Amino acid sequence: MLDMVRSIPPIHELQKTDLFLYIQNKYQIPYEQLTSIVKDEISDIRESILKNNWKGSYPGTAEFSKELFTRVENSTAHRFTYSIKKVINATGTILHTNVGRARLSKEAAEHVKETALSYTNLEYDIEKGTRGTRHTHVEELIKALTGAEAALIVNNNAAAVYFILHTFAKDKEVVISRGELIEIGGSFRVSAIMEESGAKLIEVGTTNRTHLKDYENAISDQTSIILKVHTSNFTIKGFTSSVDTEALYNFKQNHPSLLLYEDLGSGVLIDLNPFGIGDEPVVSRKLKAGADIVSFSGDKLLGGPQAGIIAGKKEYIEKLKKHQLARVLRVDKMTIAALEATLLHYLKGEAFTKIPALHSITMDASIVRQRVDDFRMKLSNEREDFTITIREGTSQIGGGSLPDVSLKTYVLSLKHKNIKAEDLSMQLRTGEPCILTRIHQEEVIFDFRTIAIEEEDLLLEALKGIPGR
User: Fold this and answer.
1) What pLDDT does residue 203 have?
2) What DSSP string describes 355-389?
3) How many Å apart are CA 446 and CA 449, to the nearest integer?
4) What φ, ψ does residue 109 adopt, rounded to 5°?
5) pTM exceeds 0.85, yes or no
6) What pLDDT, on the 0 to 100 scale, is given for residue 224?
7) Which string of DSSP letters, residue by residue, matches 97-156?
8) For residue 72, what pLDDT band results from cuts at 50, 70 and 90?
9) How far is CA 96 from CA 93, 117, 300, 400, in A?
10) Is the distance from CB of 335 to CB of 156 less than 8 angstroms?
């Protein structure tokens, strides 16, 4: 064992080998960085030998050198290539949280690129030639689209909820229906956020039924906020009742010190009902119904970047802007650029054609069917070892939005004569680019509702390259 350890070549000798120089030139990395990786690999091998776990070639041999530098190259590739990569989402879940939720429009991406590559007027008033504020760039757009008196952007909607509760209800009571104390992805619980903010939770009603009298009985001198939370990721059916925003607004008129705050979750700026898609609350209607302040996400149904958007009455928004947490939770210039471009699509009346998430959600199933038909023809001309079937299926919106809604779609179903579905799916997932699929009854499923048209050639090349003809 000790003889094997002593036979490991010294680092200075390994640095002179052709394999060392080859890896350095291939990845164009500093000499010191590659040396560090070699040292790490040698250390791991030495430890493995001492623990009697080493299964490789005997140190000092040509085979050992090849094995060592194979490990070194793998480590180098892992360290010096991007960790975040392009993924083709063929799962049919449009706002897939694991792969980044909403894709930006081309215009939004270009605006981000331009903003990232140059100095900007992020906090500079060009007309006055003085310092400005980053709040102005999207505030006017949000006001125009929602009817709000003012607006503020923070880094996500969880931050918005915390910020509002901490600012207006620290050491005070917040009344909320028990049926709205939800938990969403990542174990985010409204009750936990309230506790962290310093607000005292007052639950009213029951899980399935809450009445106005429940709120009336809960109000005290310590009450600061009546909070409504849109239960984006679940629904309760059957014997249910809840109190709407307008009723709470009317009740609040007898309690002028109370703030009526509604967390809308996904953030819908345009009614989706004409498309037969759920009953998601429209931001402007909630403000018109009497909510003093609302918050919602930028990267879900709105179709933009990750952000928490707070909109409502100016007196409340101004207080938030002046709070120290506004700086802690503020977004950068690239988020503002992406959101500005996204909101402009709404203002121009082109949201359903330009914003990928909305375009995918409202795409007619017949269009998906045509794309699947065309792709099947191309693939069948290239591969004879796939059984290719077109099936009717359903797509999901995802992102904790509209859990009841399933969108009719058509999927391409593949079965290889020699490769199991799990292995085929893994090969696609670990290739370049990564392609995420679903597996159903030993077949690999591709939902073209979530595959961009420009990604079809990449998908075809990946499937052409699958071994096992």
Assistant:
1) 93
2) SHHHHHHH--HHHHHHHHHHHHHHHHHH-SSEEEE
3) 9
4) -65, -40
5) yes
6) 97
7) GGGTSSPPPHHHHHHHHHHHTS---TTEETTTTEE--TTHHHHHHHHHHH--SEEEEES-
8) very high
9) 5, 29, 9, 9
10) no
